[in-house]
Amino acid sequence: MDKEKALEKIKKCLALSQSANEHEAAQALKQAQALMRQHGISDAEVALSDIREHSCAGRTAAKMPGWQAMLANTVAGAFGCGWYLGGDWREPRIRYYGVDNKAELAAYAYDVLLRQVKAARKDYMATVLKRVRLAKNKTYRADEFCKGWILGVQRKVGKFANGEREQALLQQFGDNLGLNQTKTRESTPGGHAKQAGNLDRFLGHEKGKHAQLHHAMGGEDLKRLGAT
């Protein structure tokens, strides 16, 4: 029996140890403890085995735009997850981690929202920003639009409040990964672009309020996210 299978069996035994039948509960607990000793599995490892990871579909830059990290944080907060930039340097991907299926749902939501904000950004650059000549100014203003869009999503989805145990597990899991702070990049505007960015954020916010999450998510997940 490998360690992963042993963990699953231990968890089943621990669940049975909560039985109202005292004899059955005692036997299940005894079996769980024996398996833990046999495979060198600690209480902390059993608890952390509740955490699952899931990668987002799309690749990202090792030094992603600030607005993209902002979206990753928004989704993590909505689902009560953590995230980090995983994979190797050639194909870095955002990876979410959370209890049960939360990481999978978060990765799905991120992919859906990323497609939408990129489409909105492309349209905004082709219309509102089409006469902006300096590339750095156009990029800056498009980035500000994206930040506003994500703020609109934040107002819509809110933040999921984890219980103390779940929050402690996420903290421990993240600590075990030994993560460094994700590096981001920001555009530096010139001229009046910084002032114009205020309007870009406002217009992005109005668009972001209409973001959609659909398909492959349960009704309760959609309800909590405010998606239709």
UniProtKB/TrEMBL annotation:
Compositional bias (Basic and acidic residues): 217-228
Q: Which InterPro entries match?
A: DUF2786, DUF7168, Phage_B3_Orf5
* Coiled-coil annotated residue ranges, if any: none
Map out region (Disordered) in residue numbers.
208-228
> A Pfam family name for this chain?
DUF2786
Residue intervals of the DUF2786 domain: 5-42
Question: Where does the record place the DUF7168 domain?
Answer: 45-179
Source species = Neisseria shayeganii
Protein name as catalogued: DUF2786 domain-containing protein
